[in-house]
Amino acid sequence: MEVEYRIKHLAEELNISQPAARKYYAMVEDIRSKKFKRNKNGYVIFTRQDVSIFEKIIEFKEQNEMKLEDAIRRAIAVIDGDQNYTEDTADLSFVTPMEKLEYLGTEVHRLNNLLQEQQEQAAKREETLMEFIKEQSNTMASIEEKLNYQEEQRQLESANKDEQKKSFWSILFGK
Question: Coiled-coil intervals in this record (predicted)?
């Protein structure tokens, strides 16, 4: 399941105010001509890829001192790889393959780290599960031993009662 961000989480992730995040997402929707997903309550939700668009917007805006709209167009072009967005603005021609490659390398590294973390978590869960199974197995073995012991005790008591009954009758009849 993919992580979903709301406006509050997006603003925290980007270190911007919530009104700024609302402004950014509204502009991205206008420029991209594609609405962000909404949850069942109608709130806007963002995927990790959506968040990466906003991260690029802020990066381009700060590094290149671009207007917000130009930074949005460039970020969309880099993330989506769609060159239709760059046709509107002449100064977006400097979206280089190197920048795309750099971004993709960063994403691959991030995904590799995420995969490694998930594998470590899975290994820990497996280890915990194996310990639990071992404990359960030991508990079951202990219970079986106790049940066997109790059964043996019942059999001994039954044998003793039979012997006592025979002894009483043999005493009574002299056999």
Answer: 101-166
Question: Which letter does DSSP use for residue 93 in this model?
Answer: T
Total-model pTM? 0.46
pLDDT at residue 53, as a whole number: 86
**pLDDT (0 to 100) of residue 85:** 43
Q: What is the pLDDT of residue 94?
A: 53
Q: Which domain holds residue 87?
A: 1-95
Give domain status of residue 4, yes or no: yes
Name the more confident of 59 and 174.
Answer: 59
User: What is the CATH number for 82?
Assistant: 1.10.1660.10
Answer left, alpha or beta for residue 15, where phi above 0 means left and psi between -120 and 50 means alpha: left
The answer to whether the CB of 43 falls within 8 A of the CB of 6 is yes
Domain count of the fold of the chain: 1
Let me know if residue 88 belongs to a domain. yes
**Inside any domain, residue 44:** yes
In the block, which residue shows the tokens 């998930």?
118
Distance from CA of residue 31 to its chain's centroid?
31
> Which residues, in sequence order, are CB contacts of 27 under 8 Å at separation 6+?
68, 69, 72
CB of 45 within 8 A of CB of 89? no
